[in-house]
UniProtKB/TrEMBL annotation:
Belongs to the cAMP-dependent kinase regulatory chain family. It holds the Pfam family cNMP_binding. It comes from the Eukaryota. Keywords: cAMP, cAMP-binding, Nucleotide-binding, Phosphoprotein, Repeat. InterPro entries: cAMP-dep_PK_reg_su-like, cAMP_dep_PK_reg_su, cAMP_dep_PK_reg_su_I/II_a/b, cNMP-bd_CS, cNMP-bd_dom, cNMP-bd_dom_sf, RmlC-like_jellyroll. The keyword Repeat applies. Residues 75-88, 107-116 have a biased composition (Acidic residues). Residues 140-261, 264-384 form the Cyclic nucleotide-binding domain. Residues 117-127 have a biased composition (Basic and acidic residues). The keyword Phosphoprotein applies. This is Cyclic nucleotide-binding domain-containing protein.
Length: 399
């Protein structure tokens, strides 16, 4: 090819990465209609880029956390008094999306040194015991040090509810964060597309809610209503921000990019991905180290942040054969969690590797919406194993 022709066909710098990311998404999600999938994929990509651009060029100011507790010019209409006063769902949805990303871009947990007053609500031994049980499984408390946990336990106060009570109304300003002691609660969201509030989830005797408005300085993103008599542990906004905010925000920020690059997790809403971020823990390994050993009991799964993981299966005479490699955006260790069987393969590091670990309890609570994708991938493993070891390798051994 002449020099002229070569320069005429110069490949744009981003093309390779763009096509690679798209191809990976197609392989993982196996869309029924490739053209529709491509149209959605690239439209989303453009929207994300536009949002980033807006934030960098001053879109920031409009929804900025500088509005303090949400009383910005645009939130004057956001106080709910009764159902008929619900603010325009369109503005709520936009606010939620904008402030969430504004936060991710502009909030600097390191710079937030607001110590505030320590709050103590006295409790009986029985109450303290119940509270300690309730907070055990709350992901955003897990990264706290023991002193912080004590402060959290001191600051929480009990609130009982009756069936039908609204604990939180979408659009209100955030006052408290809640941990469920017992009771059933419904979560409703009104959106642009559906102005009438729609049931999007529920809690039954466990879980927590109400962190979004306090973390991101935005109006309540959902309505939470008690469906039975119940009891909650509440923590006021100031204490939440003083003790929890810094650690929780750091973690969400740290894992935000990782979670966006795992194609499988597109099956989750952005809210659900945030919950995954709360539950992840970093693990680093050296070259050659064993991350997972075939035959072991499974305690969790891993997302690959950086580096390469080699997957090997022991075949005849226990000789291990490499079956695949997993890199950034991929994951390992989900099979045993889906099948409830011992580890079906070993995983080793090729060079230094950084992973994000999701324990089995968090997996069961958070990864339900990804189950179909994971099950489809398991069928792929079966194909691979049969190709390598012959038909005697049957995944039903593992199921
Ligand atoms: P908040 O302070 O905004 C309402 O007050 C709380 O409901 C919110 O914090 C969350 O803790 C909780 N979207 C937004 N908020 C939710 C959701 C949710 N689920 C629970 N909350 N979605 C449901 C995801 C399964 C997304 C709906 C599109």
């Amino acid at each position: 090819m002449s020099r002229d022709a070569a320069s005429r066909y110069e490949i744009p710098g981003q093309l390779q990465q763009l096509l690679l990311d798209f191809t990976v998404s197609c392989l993982v999600e196996r869309p029924a209609d490739l053209v529709d999938f491509a149209a959605d994929y690239f439209a989303q990509l453009r929207q994300r880029r536009q949002e980033q651009h807006n934030q960098q060029t001053g879109g920031l100011v409009a929804g900025s956390a500088a509005h303090g507790n949400g009383h910005g010019p645009e939130s004057d209409d956001s106080m709910l008094t009764d159902e008929s006063d619900e603010p325009s769902p369109e503005s709520l949805a936009n606010r939620f999306n904008r402030r969430k990303s504004v936060f991710a871009e502009s909030y600097d947990p390191e710079g937030d040194d607001d110590e505030g007053e320590k709050v103590v609500h006295p409790k009986s031994d029985q109450q303290r015991h119940r509270l300690a049980e309730a907070v055990k499984n709350i992901f955003i408390f897990r990264s706290l040090d023991p002193d912080q946990v004590q402060d959290v336990l001191d600051a929480m106060f009990e609130k009982t509810v009756d069936s039908g009570d609204y604990v939180i109304r979408q659009g209100d300003d955030g006052d408290n964060f809640y941990v469920i002691d017992r009771g059933a609660f419904h979560i409703y969201v009104a959106s642009d597309a559906e102005p009438t509030k729609r049931l999007v989830g529920q809690y039954e005797d466990s879980g927590s809610f109400g962190e979004l408005a306090l973390m991101y300085n935005m109006p309540r993103a959902a309505t939470v209503q008690a469906m039975s008599h119940g009891s909650l542990w509440a923590m006021d906004r100031t204490t939440f921000r003083r003790i929890i905010l810094k650690t929780a925000c750091k973690k969400r920020k740290m894992y935000e990019t990782l979670l966006e690059t795992v194609p499988m997790l597109r099956a989750l809403t952005s809210y659900e991905r945030m919950n995954v971020a709360d539950a992840l823990n970093p693990r680093t390994f050296e070259d050659g180290e064993c991350i997972i050993r075939q035959g072991d009991a499974a305690d969790g799964m891993y997302f690959v942040e950086t580096g390469t993981v080699r997957i090997a299966v022991a075949g005849e005479n226990d000789v291990e054969v490499e079956v695949s490699r997993v890199t950034k955006g991929g994951y390992v260790g989900e099979l045993a969690l889906v099948t409830h069987r011992p580890r079906a393969a070993s995983a080793y590091c090729v060079g230094p590797v950084r992973l994000a670990f999701l324990d089995v309890q968090a997996f069961e609570r958070l990864m339900g919406p990804c189950m179909n994708i994971m099950k489809r991938n398991i069928d792929d493993y079966e194909d691979q194993l049969i190709r390598i070891f012959g038909s005697r390798f049957n995944m039903s051994d593992f199921r």
